[in-house]
Amino acid sequence: MAVIRVHDGMNNIDVEVTEEFAAAYAEMERLERLTERKETRRHQSLDKSMEHGFDVADPSENTFEKIEQSERNRQLYQAISHLSPEQQKLLFEVYFEYIPQVEIARREGVSKFAINKRLSRILAKLKKNLQ
């Protein structure tokens, strides 16, 4: 006979069991401690990585699509850099600040049609530069 120590939530209790059961119980406890140690180390490692600004890869993201999107963005920024400062400003106001074309026209003292025409020419120039 062998004795194993079992915790019942408040106290440790010594229980008399067979040698085979004691060996199996000891192996089970060893595996449980090993698993707990691995999980603790994994969580600590992830926490430390996040603290230092490392991103953990999202397996649902398509890396190839991200690279293509990044390349398209680079090309777009390059094409925009070839526009005049006035053209860049108009694009920024319309597409990033969401200022209505009517308001831009009123501020510049021109018709909405004139602003719309400028924007069409700018977009055509961007499209040409991107091809």
Please report the total strand number as a whole number: 2
Give the topology string: H per helix, E per strand.
Answer: EEHHHHH
Q: Count the DSSP helices.
A: 5
**Structure classification:** mainly alpha
Mean pLDDT: 85
Cα-to-Cα separation, first versus last residue: 84 Å
What's the gyration radius in Å? 33 Å
Poorly predicted regions: none
Please report which band the strand proportion falls in: under 5%, 5-15%, 15-25%, 25-35%, 35-45% or over 45%: 5-15%
Shape: rod-shaped
Helix content: 55-70%
Major β-sheet strand ordering: 1-2
Largest sheet: 2 strands, antiparallel
Task: Report what the structure shows.
With about 130 residues, the chain is mainly alpha-helical. Helices cover about 70% and strands about 10% of the residues. It has helices at about 20-50, 65-80, 85-95, 100-110, 110-130, and strands at about 1-5, 10-15. The protein has a two-stranded antiparallel ribbon. Helix 4 packs across helix 5 (about 110-130).
Q: What are the salient characteristics of this protein?
A:
131 residues, two-stranded antiparallel ribbon, single chain, mainly alpha, 9% strand
